[in-house]
């Protein structure tokens, strides 16, 4: 992409309405624009990152054996009356009346709809287990939408639902999703700590919230430092994790059996990026989702649901990875892999080298942002750092004369002078 042609409305001023770094940076770097409270348009740069995150989530769901479908955003109220949640959900639900006076709603989640689909289309235990998911916009009329996309009213969620005929099966589905979540967040360069959202309950509700640590997180969290040690070794697995103490503040119990001694108990702030939940027959019973079991008798389905805040993750990643110059994208979700800074646009030799490099890297399948604008070098450096492009190739008249370019790493800040050939080799390796 040539920056001169890109729709990238960056802001010089710090937007007054934004209270936290990720929100400020997303507005300043031209990723999003607010259309009304908690509702945003995703501009090209923001959408690119959103799609990358979505792709990682999708790949790990598919790898775990979940199957993607797509349910609508608008749902009928009567379905929610079946489960009893239509009245219970309260003001967070956006209720709509269509031209025939039918009550509808903009889905805040999809347990009812997926239960209906499975109930109407699966009759036998032989067709189970199943984990089905979609990645779809949700609407929740939050009391206090804030922090940009982190607590929006309209937001993108990945929600999966598991269906099993017994607790053992449901537990296995839960563990499959648990493991998939750890992989998903790790691929995004994040360490997500699974917090026991319902500690101690065996056979009943089983639930974990996945939090990433950030000073601006909305939840207080308490956890055993052993997590940090395991994470540093890359040694995170379900068995070792389930023994460790990790909870959000409302669940904190200083007398719980596995609370570590005070010097091993960490307190921090966390951003909830995912939530997984086993809830047995809560919806299947209310909605009569029953299959024929192995002995011919009817069995009420065991269910779980598994959410990831896809759009919240964009903000959460920035919150955990930025400096005062701008965003520092982990390579896996960066909107562009390489930026080219032409220090002297209009100079035929600089332009020539930049064009060649731009073509060579693009041909190699890399996404490249080429700053070909007629702007001062300082502006170009600042914008590339604000956008957070992981690798930046700086091409100037002096270097070009000597066959040399500068390669800068956004994360470490390290700069290296290299021949053009070695720089290309490094970037395409
Ligand atoms: P929270 O406690 O943050 O309101 P929740 O418990 O209501 O979250 P779930 O219903 O479990 O959230 O939804 C699954 C995921 O969707 C959450 O883990 C979070 O990452 C994301 N999410 C929930 N509400 C919002 C929102 N208003 N804006 C952006 N993402 C959200
Ligand atoms: Mg909520």
Regarding CATH, which class of the largest domain?
Alpha Beta
Query: What Rg, in angstroms, do the CA atoms define?
Result: 25 Å
Overall pLDDT: 95
Largest sheet: 9 strands, mixed
The portion of residues forming beta strands comes to: 25-35%
CATH architecture classification name of the largest domain: 2-Layer Sandwich
Roughly how much helix do the residues carry, as a percent range?
25-40%
Walk me through this protein's architecture.
With 429 residues, the chain is an alpha+beta fold. It has two domains: 21-326, Bira Bifunctional Protein, Domain 2 (BirA Bifunctional Protein, domain 2, 2-Layer Sandwich), CATH 3.30.930; 338-428, Anticodon-binding domain (Rossmann fold). Helices cover 33% and strands 29% of the residues. The protein contains 14 helices and 23 strands. It has helices spanning 21-28, 44-63, 77-83, 85-88, 111-121, 167-187, 226-232, 238-243, 282-286, 310-320, 348-363, 377-387, 397-402, 420-428, and strands at 32-36, 39-42, 67-68, 74-76, 94-97, 103-106, 130-139, 154-164, 192-196, 206-213, 219-224, 246-248, 265-280, 290-292, 298-300, 302-309, 322-323, 326-327, 338-342, 368-371, 391-395, 404-409, 415-419. The strands form six sheets. Strands 3, 7, 8, 9, 10, 11, 12, 13 and 16 form a nine-stranded mixed beta sheet that branches. Helix 1 packs across helix 10, helix 2 (44-63) packs antiparallel against helix 6 and helix 2 (44-63) packs across helix 10. The chain is globular. Residues 199-203 have low confidence and may be disordered. The structure holds adenosine-5'-triphosphate and magnesium ion. The site of adenosine-5'-triphosphate (ATP) has 15 residues, from strand 8, strand 13, strand 16 and helix 10.
């Amino acid at each position: 992409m040539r920056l001169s042609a890109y729709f990238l409305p960056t802001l010089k001023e710090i937007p007054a309405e934004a209270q936290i770094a990720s929100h400020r940076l997303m507005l300043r770097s031209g990723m999003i624009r607010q259309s009304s409270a908690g509702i945003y348009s995703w501009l090209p740069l923001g959408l690119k990152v959103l799609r990358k995150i979505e792709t990682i989530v999708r790949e790990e769901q598919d790898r775990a054996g979940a199957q993607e479908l797509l349910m609508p955003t608008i749902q009928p109220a009567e379905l929610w009356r079946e489960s009893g949640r239509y009245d219970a959900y309260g003001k967070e639900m956006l209720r709509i009346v269509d031209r025939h006076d039918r009550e509808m709603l903009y889905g805040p989640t999809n347990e009812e709809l997926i239960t209906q689909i499975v109930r109407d289309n699966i009759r036998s235990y032989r067709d189970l287990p199943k984990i089905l998911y979609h990645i779809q916009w949700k609407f929740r009329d939050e009391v206090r939408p804030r922090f940009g996309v982190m607590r929006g009213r309209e937001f993108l969620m990945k929600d999966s639902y598991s269906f099993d005929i017994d607790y053992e099966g449901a537990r296995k589905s839960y563990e499959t999703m648990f493991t998939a979540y750890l992989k998903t967040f790790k691929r995004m360069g994040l360490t997500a700590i699974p917090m026991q959202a319902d500690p101690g309950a065996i056979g009943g509700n089983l639930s974990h919230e996945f939090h990433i640590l950030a000073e601006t997180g909305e939840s207080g969290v308490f956890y055993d430092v052993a997590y940090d040690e395991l994470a540093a070794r890359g040694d995170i697995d379900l068995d070792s994790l389930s023994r460790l103490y990790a909870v959000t503040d409302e669940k904190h119990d200083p007398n719980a059996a596995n609370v570590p001694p005070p010097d091993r108990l960490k307190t921090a702030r966390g951003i909830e990026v995912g939530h997984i939940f086993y809830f047995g027959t809560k919806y299947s019973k209310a909605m009569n989702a029953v299959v024929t079991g192995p002995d011919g008798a009817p069995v009420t389905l065991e269910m779980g649901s598994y959410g990831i805040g896809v759009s919240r993750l964009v903000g959460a990643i920035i919150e955990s990875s930025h400096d005062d110059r701008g965003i520092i994208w982990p390579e896996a979700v960066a909107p562009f892999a390489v930026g080219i800074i032409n220090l002297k646009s209009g100079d035929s030799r600089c332009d020539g080298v930049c064009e060649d490099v731009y073509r060579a890297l693009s041909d190699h399948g890399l996404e490249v942002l080429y700053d070909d604008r007629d702007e001062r070098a300082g502006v170009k450096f600042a914008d590339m750092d604000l956008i957070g492009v992981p690798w930046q190739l700086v091409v100037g008249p002096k270097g070009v004369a000597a066959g040399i370019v500068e390669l800068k790493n956004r994360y470490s800040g390290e700069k290296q002078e290299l021949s053009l050939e070695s720089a290309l080799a490094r970037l395409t390796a």
